[in-house]
Amino acid sequence: MSNILLDLSLSMVKKDEMENMKAFIQTAHRLLHESLGAGKEFTGWLDLPNSYDEAELNRIKYYAEKIKKESQAFVVIGIGGSYLGARALIEALNHNFYNELSEEKRKGPAIYYAGNNISSNYIWDLIDLLEDKDISINVISKSGTTTEPAIAFRVFKEYMEKKYGKRGARERIYVTTDKDRGALRELAEMEGYASFVIPDDIGGRYSVLTAVGLLPIAVSGINIDELLLGASDGVDEYFNEDLDDNICYQYAAIRNILYNKGKDIEILISYEPNLQYFAEWWKQLFGESEGKDNKGIFPASANFTTDLHSLGQLIQDGKRNLFETTIHIEKPKKDITIKADDNNLDKLNYLENKTIDFVNKKAFEGTVAAHTSGRVPNIVIKLPQLNEYYFGKLIYFFEKACAISGYMLGVNPFDQPGVEEYKRNMFKLLGKPGY
Ligand SMILES: O=P(O)(O)OC[C@H]1O[C@H](O)[C@H](O)[C@@H](O)[C@@H]1O
Asked: pLDDT tens for residues 267-303?
C-alpha cells in the first residue's frame, strides 16, 4: 500500500551513526509518552486525532456550511500558530488560484488573512477589497491578548457592525480561543458570538488539528475527516519506539546527527508552489520549539525550481552549514504533455510526449545529485499524493518529530519564552500600563 516514505540514502549519515541514536530516541519517546519531559502539560496534540470529540467536529462542520452559505469572503484573524496551519493546508490542498476562482468553481468563500502583521496599508487594502462582498470572520487567539490580531479584530468588529448592524455582525463573527480565560473569551460571552475552544494542553503551533485550523480549513471545502484520518493513522504508525521501524523518529534522529556535525540550517524544499505556507507552518513549529538556550537548527524554506535561480548558488557552493529536506509529491493532481512544435525555435522538441511533471521530477533528481555532490546532506520525504489524508499524516509526522527532536536537543519543545522580549519592548514604547 502507498504511504509516506523517508529516503535517507543521500543524508550522508552512516548506518552506525543512526544505530547510536537508538537509546536517545527511546528516552525521548518515554519523556513524551509517559509525560516526564519538560512542557509535559502541552502534549494534548499527541492523541488528539484518535480522541476527537464527535460533537465538536459536527459543530465545526455545521458552522463551516453556514459560513459558506452566507459569505463570499472569509477573514481569518490570527498570528503564528493561530493561523499558519490553516493557511498551510488551505493553500496546499486547494486550487493554486483558489481566491481568484469564480464562486461556482470554488467550494467555499475566498479566504483572506488579517492580524498577522501591524501594517495599516495591509488592513486598509483588505477592507477596500471586501467592500462589496458579504463576509464572515474568525478571530483566533489562544491567549486572547496578542496585539496583532487584537488590533485587527478591533478594526474588523467596528467594520462588521457598521456593515451589518450589531445583531447582524454577531451572526458573522466566530471566535476561537481559550475555554475560559482571556479578553477574547470574555468578549465572545458578552457579545454572544459562536465560539470554539483551543484545549489547554495544546500550544498554538501544535493546534492546527483543533478548531483553530479545522474551521477555516473546512470553510475552504477541504475534507477534514480525511485530514484527521491521516493524522490518526500517524498516531499509530509513528508510535513504535524502535528507530528501525519509525520514520518519524528517524527524521528526528537524523536532524540531531546533522546538527551535531555543524549543519545548523535546515531548508525545507518543495517543487509545488502551493506548499509555501506549509513551509511557514513548519518553520514556526521547529523554530519556536527548538530555538532556545542558544541552541537549535534554523528552519528555512525554498521553493524549487523557482529558488534554484536565486538561492541555488549558495546551496550548491556556499558555507557548508546546511542540509535539505524535500517534500516530494510522487503523483501530480493533473499533468500536461509537451507537444512537438514544427519550428522548434525553443529547441524543446526533445521533450516531445514527456509531461511537465516528468520534467519537474528530473529537475528534482538533478538538484539532489548536484547538491549532494556539493556536500549538502539531503533528506527526502515522499508523499504518494497531495491530498487530505497524506497531509493530515504529514502534519502529525512533523509535530511528533519536532517534540522528539526537541527532547533530544535537551530543550522544552513546548514553550517560547524568547518571543516575549520584543513584546515587552514594544509595550514599553507604546506606554502600555504596567510596562
Ligand atoms: O494564539 P495567540 O495566543 O494569539 O498566539 C499567537 C502566537 O503568538 C505568540 O507570540 C507565540 O510566539 C506563538 O507561539 C503563538 O502561536
From this structure: 999 999 999 999 999 999 999 999 999 999 999 999 9
CA of 335 to the centre of ligand 1 (A): 39
Asked, for residue 41, whether it belongs to a domain, the answer is no
* pLDDT tens column, 146-165: 999 999 999 999 999 999 99
Asked, for residue 71, whether it belongs to a domain, the answer is yes
Active-site residue (options: 91, 280, 288, 324): 288
SS (H, E, C) the chain: CCCCEEECCCCCCCHHHHHCCHHHHHHHHHHHHCCCCCCHHHCCCCCHHHCCCHHHHHHHHHHHHHHHHHCCEEEEECCHHHCHHHHHHHHHHCCCCHHHCCCCCCCCCEEEEECCCCCHHHHHHHHHHHCCCCEEEEEEECCCCCHHHHHHHHHHHHHHHHHHHHHHHHCCEEEEECCCCCHHHHHHHHHCCEEEECCCCCCHHHCCCCHHHHHHHHHCCCCHHHHHHHHHHHHHHCCCCCHHHCHHHHHHHHHHHHHHCCCCEEEEEECCHHHHHHHHHHHHHHHHHHCCCCCCCEEEEEECCHHHHCCHHHHHHCCCCEEEEEEEEEECCCCCECCCCCCCCCCCHHHCCCEHHHHHHHHHHHHHHHHHHCCCCEEEEEEEECCHHHHHHHHHHHHHHHHHHHHHHCCCCCCCHHHHHHHHHHHHHHCCCCC
Whether the CB of 143 sits within 6 Å of ligand 1: yes
CATH code for the domain of 155: 3.40.50.10490
The residue segments making up the domain with residue 342 are 5-36+233-414
Residues 55 and 171 in one domain: yes
Residue having the nearest C-alpha atom to atom 13 of ligand 1: 80
Q: Could you tell me if the CB of 185 is within 6 A of ligand 1?
A: no
169 located within any domain: yes
Residue 431 lies in a domain: no
166 is catalytic: no
Residues 116 and 57 in one domain: yes
Q: What is the mean pLDDT of residues 347-351?
A: 97
